Amino acid sequence: xxxxxxxxxxxxxxxxxxxxxxxxxxxxxxxxxxxxxxxxxxxxxxxxxxxxxxxxxxxxxxxxxxxxxxxxxxxxxxxxxxxxxxxxxxxxxxxxxxxxxxxxxxxxxxxxxxxxxxxxxxxxxxxxxxxxxxxxxxxxxxxxxxxxxxxxxxxxxxxxxxxxxxxxxxxxxxxxxxxxxxxxxxxxxxxxxxxxxxxxxxxxxxxxxxxxxxxxxxxxxxxxxxxxxxxxxxxxxxxxxxxxxxxxxxxxxxxxxxxxxxxxxxxxxxxxxxxxxxxxxxxxxxxxxxxxxxxxxxxxxxxxxxxxxxxxxxxxxxxxxxxxxxxxxxxxxxxxxxxxxxxxxxxxxxxxxxxxxxxxxxxxxxxxxxxxxxxxxxxxxxxxxxxxxxxxxxxxxxxxxxxxxxxxxxxxxxxxxxxxxxxxxxxxx
Length: 429
Ligand code: PMP
Fold this sequence. Notes:
The chain is built from 14 helices and 13 strands. By secondary structure, it is α/β, with parallel strands linked by helices. 4'-deoxy-4'-aminopyridoxal-5'-phosphate binds next to α5.
């Protein structure tokens, strides 16, 4: 395989002609394909349909606290749901509060509370001239949307194969009191599928923030979302690590069962120190008399315990693995050795991250759209939608069928090749 950069202008032009013909043929098929969002497929949703049967009109609906789950009561989650999610999040069950169906909602509330009321008695962020968040990039667009919504300045921190650039994180966190938080997806990150190394987690726990109200927003959305039985990443548990380092309050940990049971109707939770949770419960009791306990009970009875959940995740993996393998095989076969793009092979999570040559991502996404393939907007993986290199594209293979993925990857790889050739030809002008 010859790298495109080593081809002559005439060779590139000839290749362009050949690939354009192929592209037009695919375009003529009038495809409608979508690899834009990390949604579970219908087949995956069907795995949890048993949950619909665990509670019936004749079920005993009393939870371990002795409360009728149909009624008011039990503010921060029923015991059986707390145990299940605590095991899933690898924390003691007293360090967890259960919310509604969305962890993103909890993250939003956490930032909103800090803006309006401050964190444990510190000045509310809305009264400060400047509030900053560190944003490992590429990252999750909806995290960045929350901080942008509140006018928080976002600072890009480059991701490395072991997590965010910790030299930069340590420098900014320890010297700038305006830095109040950092968004982290520490396991099978969105979009790269990177898991933070032991050293990275240790360095997080050892941070010495200039701001007393600095918090790590540890969004472990993909903690048990492995793809392979024999190749799994391991992540050190951050709450305990921060406690050991004498910073028990420095982290909020978020998770949900969105991609375990149902994204629209799962359960979400926050895990944190006693002091943080005390403050969270104070706000919570004003917001609600309690979240959906029937759904909590349904989850607890369906999965039974963490072993049930882990077994369930293997069924998800059996559906997801061939899709990831297909995307990776196509990238390797079509683009390997051409030096017009790079990617990582994650061991879990929901995404594959592709990096094109600089200045090509927007054009590739637009080109793919011409042939009926919708990808996540280029730039979405960066704060303010601005990828300084215009190179990152997130591939989400979960929702389409295998056949659709094969077609989608044909469109995608052709788009990458054509846009890269144009870029190289323009450079050669
Ligand atoms: N965090 C990350 C990193 C995600 O990728 C997603 C879903 N795409 C969420 C949170 C959303 O979680 P929830 O459904 O619990 O709001």
